[in-house]
Design brief:
The chain is an alpha+beta fold and about 180 residues long. The chain has a single domain (about 10-170), classed as Peptide deformylase (Peptide Deformylase). The protein is about 25% helix and about 25% strand. It has a five-stranded antiparallel sheet with strand order 1-2-3-6-7. A two-stranded antiparallel sheet has the order 4-5. The termini are close together. It binds zinc ion. Zinc ion (ZN) binds near residues 96, 97, 98, 138 and 142.
Length: about 180
């Protein structure tokens, strides 16, 4: 497995091609994930986000970090997360650390049942709803190479099209791809 250099990790911005990669299952669950959780949390909180997926830092293995919605500055890493079921519907404004400056209404399920493995190896399964359900759905889209801007309605799409085009025109690829360890 190719490990990224943690100190060089950065949040990739649209239209970086890594954001469109489909992440693969993680099988090697070692100490590295604790350090990765810390580094991704640092990047996420530094950018005032509440979630960050591995594809957003160019490491396409199924792993996400979510900030606590109740305890400020607290976060947790989740390995191989999946959504088992979705119920209901909610529509709210959404943004993304990889698409800075754009907010748009996105329709999501109101409740989701999720399964994942914590970085200490414990398997967990639980229901999330409201804002937490939204965060899980948003981050799991990232692991499929999806972005929230793919899900906005036709009217919002027109509004954000100019800003997306601007980001495409000003895009500069990062120079570091990490090393084999
Ligand atoms: Zn995002």
């Amino acid at each position: 497995m190719k490990y990224p250099k943690l100190e060089r990790l950065q949040i990739l911005h649209y239209p970086d091609p890594h954001l469109r990669e489909k992440a693969v299952d993680l099988t090697d669950v070692g100490n590295f994930l604790k350090e990765l959780t810390e580094r991704m949390s640092e990047l996420m909180f530094g950018a005032k986000g509440i979630g960050l997926a591995s594809t957003q830092v160019g490491w396409p293995f199924r792993f996400i970090v979510l900030g606590s919605l109740t305890e400020e500055g607290k976060s947790e890493g989740y390995i191989n997360p999946v959504i088992l079921s979705r119920q209901g519907r909610q529509v709210a404004e959404e943004g993304c650390l990889s698409v800075p400056g754009i907010w748009a209404k996105v329709r999501r399920a109101e409740r989701v049942r999720v399964r994942a493995t914590r970085i200490d190896g414990e398997r967990i399964e639980f229901d999330a709803e409201g804002m937490a359900a939204r965060a899980w759905q948003h981050e799991l889209d990232h692991l499929e190479g999806g972005l929230f801007v793919d899900r906005v309605g036709p009217a919002a799409r027109i509004v954000i099209a100019g800003r997306l085009r601007e980001m495409e025109e000003h895009y500069v690829p990062p120079d570091d791809e990490g090393d084999e360890h």
